[in-house]
C-alpha cells in the first residue's frame, strides 16, 4: 500500500512538472490553429473550427521565410565560428603552458557576465562605423562575444579530462600540436562539441535584443524580431504570433531530438571515472 | 638503434630541484632500468630522454648527436605508457599503424608492418577491435605493438606493467625480455618494482631524491650496493643493518660484537660504521662457535620454499632466512654464523666501504 502510494505521488509529481513546462507551449500550439474569433475565448480549450489561416498569413503579411533563413544563417555561422575558435583556444588553455592562462579564462568569463543591455550602445556605434549594420556580421560578431566564452569553458574542461598520456603518445608518434587537436581531441570531444554547438545555436536562434538593435530590414532581420512586427496599430495578431512561434520552435525541437543521445552523454561526460 | 648519453642533467620545477646532476651512458642495444621509489625522478628523467620535458641544464646525446632541444618526434623514439595511452576512437589496427601514418608512409607498407607486429604479439585476431573491448593484457600488447611497428632508435617504457595483475605481469615481463633479445635495440625501462628491474636489465640505474645512486649490473647492485639506500632498496626482505662503534677488529653494537674481515678496517679513519648482512647470508648453526651470534626468535613466517625468521640481535629486529622445515618457536634462541660471507660495510656518510 505504502509502495503504491509513493509510486503514485512520484508520478503525480512528474506529471505536474511536465504540465508546468509544456503547458505554455501547448497553449501556443492550440492557439495557432484557432480562428481569430475563438482566440480570446476560453472555454472551449480546443479550437472549434481549426484553421491553417494563421500559418498562411504569417507568410503573407511579412517575409517570414526570409527571417527564418536569416536566423538559420546567423545561428549556423556563429556556431561554426565558435566551435572552430573555441576548440583551438580550449586546446591551448587545456594543454599548453603559459603564465596568463587563468587570467585569460577569467577575463573570458567576466566578459560573458556583462549584461547585454550595457554593451548595446557601444556595440551599436561600432557596428554603424564599421559599416556592417543590418548585415549578418552585425549579429554574428556580437553573438560570438557571449557564445565563445561558453564554448571555451565547456571545451576546456572537457579537453582537460582527456588523459595527458594520449597527447604524449601522439607527440612521440610524430604528430604536431595542430594534428593532435584534429586527430585526437576533436574526435574524442564529439559529445562536448555537439552539446556546446546546440547550446550556442539555440542561444543565437532565440536572441532578441542585439537582433532588434543591429538590423533594420529583412536583409538581416531574424525570426524573434520578425515576430514582433505582426503587431499593427489596431490589430492584436495573437494568431500569427502563435503560428510564427510554433514555426520557429520546430527546428530546435528537431535538433534536440536528433542530438539527444550525444547531448546527454556530453552533459555527463567525465562525471564518473570511466 | 643508438646509445644514449645524459651529461650533467639538472631539472627544476620552479624552485624545486627534481633531478640533480645525472650522468650516465646507455650503450647501443642495452636494456637499462631506472629503478627507484615514487617521486625519485626516474620518470622525469625518462620524459626528458623522450623530449616530453625539457632539461633545466645539461645535454642529452643519441649516439653523438645532441638532441637536448629536439622535439619528441625528431628523436625517433617509441614509448610505452603505464596507462597504455591507446587512442580510444581507433581500432587496434589503426592504433598500431598510428606512428607510421603520422609519418606519411604508404598504405601498403603500413599494412605489412602492422600485420607483422600484430603477429609477433599475437594480436592478429583482434585488429578490428577497439581498445575498450580488450583486456588489460591485450591493451598493453597493443601499446607494445605501436612501439615495435617502427624501428626507432630507442624504446622507452614508463612502468608498463604496473597496471597488470601478478600472473600477467610475469608473462609480459618475459615477453618484453624476448622482445629485447629479438630486436637487439636500446631499451630504457622505468619501474619501481625491483624484481622487474633485476630480471630484465643489463644494467640498473637506481634513483633516489633526484640523484643517481648506482648504475651497475643487477648482480653488482645486489652484491655490492654502493650506499645504504641501494642496500636497503634492493633485496626483499631488505638487508639487515647495524650501526656500531669500531673496537679493534670488530664493531660494537650495544654490547654485541660483529667481527669484520681484517682488510675492511685498514685505511678506515671514522669512528663508527654501519654493517649490513642479508637474511640469506646467515647460517643457522646448532651450537655457538667463535664469532657466532645469539638471536631470539620473534616470529616465524613460512613462505613456501623457505622461511623468514624475525629475530632480535643486539636489541634490533632483523630477518633471517631458514629452510622451510626449520621450526623454531617464539622466544627460542638460535645461533647464527656470518663469518663465511661478505659483510657489507658503509661509512658514516652511508657509502660503501670496499675491501681493498
Structure summarized in a few sentences:
The complex is a heterodimer of chains A (274) and B (356). With 274 residues, chain A is mainly alpha-helical. Chain A has helices at residues 2-32, 53-61, 64-95, 101-113, 116-130, 137-160, 164-173, 177-188, 190-206, 209-214, 223-228, 238-268.
Using brief descriptors, characterize the structure shown.
heterodimer, A: 274 residues, mainly alpha, MetI-like fold, disordered C terminus, B: 356 residues, alpha+beta, six-stranded mixed β-sheet, five-stranded antiparallel β-sheet, 20 strands, 25% helix, elongated
Explain this structure.
The complex is a heterodimer of chains A (274) and B (356). With 274 residues, chain A is an all-alpha fold. Chain A has a domain at 63-229: MetI-like (MetI-like fold, Orthogonal Bundle), CATH 1.10.3720. Chain A is 75% helix and 0% strand. Chain A has helices spanning 2-32, 53-61, 64-95, 101-113, 116-130, 137-160, 164-173, 177-188, 190-206, 209-214, 223-228, 238-268. Chain A is globular, with a radius of gyration of 23 Å. The model of chain A is unreliable at 269-274 (pLDDT under 50). Chain B has 356 residues and is an alpha+beta fold. Chain B has nine helices and 20 strands. Chain B has helices spanning 42-50, 92-102, 107-120, 136-148, 166-183, 194-200, 218-223, 228-233, 262-265, and strands at residues 4-13, 16-26, 31-35, 57-62, 65-66, 77-80, 154-158, 186-191, 203-208, 211-216, 240-247, 250-253, 256-259, 272-277, 283-285, 293-302, 306-313, 316-323, 333-337, 344-346. In chain B, helix 2 packs across helix 3 and helix 3 crosses helix 4. The longest helix of chain B is centred in the middle third of the chain and has 18 residues, at 166-183. At the A-B interface, helix 7 and helix 8 of A face strand 6 and helix 2 of B.
Amino acid at each position: 500500500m505504502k509502495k503504491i502510494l509513493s509510486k503514485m505521488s512520484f508520478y503525480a509529481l512528474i506529471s505536474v512538472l511536465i504540465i508546468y513546462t509544456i503547458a505554455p507551449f501547448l497553449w501556443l500550439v492550440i492557439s495557432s490553429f484557432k480562428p481569430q474569433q475563438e482566440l480570446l475565448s476560453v472555454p472551449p480549450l480546443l479550437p472549434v473550427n481549426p484553421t491553417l489561416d494563421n500559418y498562411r498569413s504569417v507568410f503573407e503579411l511579412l517575409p517570414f521565410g526570409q527571417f527564418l533563413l536569416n536566423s538559420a544563417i546567423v545561428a549556423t555561422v556563429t556556431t561554426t565560428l565558435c566551435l572552430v575558435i573555441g576548440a583551438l583556444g580550449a586546446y591551448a588553455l587545456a594543454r599548453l603552458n603559459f603564465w596568463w592562462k587563468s587570467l585569460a579564462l577569467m577575463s573570458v568569463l567576466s566578459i560573458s557576465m556583462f549584461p547585454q543591455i550595457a554593451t548595446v550602445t557601444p556595440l551599436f556605434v561600432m557596428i554603424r562605423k564599421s559599416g556592417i549594420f543590418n548585415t549578418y556580421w552585425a549579429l554574428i560578431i556580437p553573438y560570438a562575444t557571449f557564445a565563445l566564452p561558453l564554448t571555451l569553458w565547456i571545451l576546456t574542461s572537457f579537453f582537460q579530462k582527456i588523459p595527458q598520456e594520449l597527447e604524449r603518445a601522439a607527440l612521440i608518434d610524430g604528430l604536431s600540436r595542430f594534428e593532435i587537436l584534429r586527430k585526437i581531441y576533436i574526435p574524442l570531444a564529439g559529445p562536448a562539441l555537439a552539446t556546446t554547438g546546440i547550446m550556442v545555436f539555440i542561444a543565437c536562434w532565440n536572441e532578441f535584443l542585439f537582433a532588434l538593435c543591429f538590423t533594420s530590414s529583412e536583409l538581416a532581420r531574424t525570426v524573434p524580431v520578425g515576430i514582433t512586427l505582426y503587431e499593427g496599430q489596431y490589430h492584436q495578431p495573437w494568431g500569427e504570433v502563435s503560428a510564427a512561434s510554433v514555426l520557429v520552435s520546430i527546428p530546435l525541437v528537431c535538433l534536440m531530438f536528433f542530438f539527444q543521445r550525444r547531448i546527454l552523454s556530453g552533459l555527463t561526460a567525465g562525471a564518473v571515472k570511466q | 638503434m643508438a646509445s644514449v648519453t645524459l651529461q650533467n642533467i639538472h631539472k627544476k620545477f620552479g624552485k624545486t630541484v627534481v633531478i640533480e646532476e645525472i650522468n650516465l651512458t646507455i650503450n647501443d642495444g642495452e636494456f637499462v632500468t631506472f629503478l627507484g621509489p615514487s617521486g625519485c625522478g626516474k620518470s622525469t628523467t625518462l620524459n626528458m630522454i623522450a623530449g616530453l620535458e625539457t632539461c633545466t641544464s645539461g645535454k642529452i646525446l643519441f649516439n653523438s648527436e645532441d638532441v637536448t632541444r629536439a622535439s619528441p618526434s625528431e628523436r625517433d623514439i617509441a614509448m610505452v605508457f603505464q596507462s597504455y595511452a591507446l587512442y580510444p576512437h581507433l581500432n587496434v589496427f589503426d592504433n598500431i599503424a598510428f606512428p607510421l601514418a603520422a609519418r606519411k608512409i604508404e598504405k601498403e607498407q603500413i599494412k605489412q608492418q602492422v600485420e607483422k607486429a600484430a603477429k609477433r604479439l599475437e594480436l592478429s585476431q583482434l585488429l578490428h577491435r577497439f581498445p575498450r573491448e580488450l583486456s588489460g593484457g591485450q591493451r598493453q600488447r597493443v601499446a607494445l605493438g605501436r612501439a615495435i611497428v617502427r624501428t626507432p632508435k630507442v624504446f622507452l617504457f614508463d612502468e608498463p606493467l604496473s597496471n597488470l595483475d601478478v600472473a600477467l605481469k610475469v608473462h609480459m615481463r618475459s615477453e618484453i625480455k624476448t622482445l629485447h633479445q629479438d630486436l637487439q635495440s636500446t631499451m630504457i625501462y622505468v619501474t619501481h618494482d625491483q624484481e622487474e628491474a633485476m630480471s630484465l636489465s643489463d644494467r640498473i640505474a637506481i634513483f633516489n631524491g633526484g640523484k643517481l645512486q648506482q648504475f651497475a649490473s643487477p648482480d653488482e647492485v645486489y652484491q655490492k650496493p654502493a650506499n645504504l639506500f641501494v642496500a636497503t632498496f634492493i633485496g626483499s626482505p631488505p638487508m639487515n643493518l647495524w650501526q656500531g662503534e669500531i673496537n679493534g677488529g670488530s664493531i660494537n653494537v650495544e654490547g654485541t660484537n660483529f667481527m669484520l674481515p681484517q682488510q675492511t678496517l685498514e685505511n678506515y679513519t671514522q669512528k663508527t660504521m654501519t654493517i649490513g648482512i642479508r637474511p640469506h647470508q646467515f647460517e643457522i648453526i646448532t651450537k655457538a662457535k667463535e664469532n657466532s651470534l645469539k638471536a631470539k626468535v620473534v616470529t616465524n613466517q613460512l613462505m613456501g620454499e623457505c622461511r623468514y625468521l624475525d629475530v632480535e640481535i643486539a636489541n634490533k629486529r632483523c630477518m633471517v632466512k631458514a629452510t622451510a622445515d626449520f621450526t623454531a618457536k617464539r622466544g627460542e634462541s638460535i645461533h647464527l654464523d656470518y663469518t663465511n660471507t661478505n659483510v657489507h660495510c658503509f661509512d658514516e656518510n652511508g657509502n660503501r666501504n670496499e675491501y681493498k
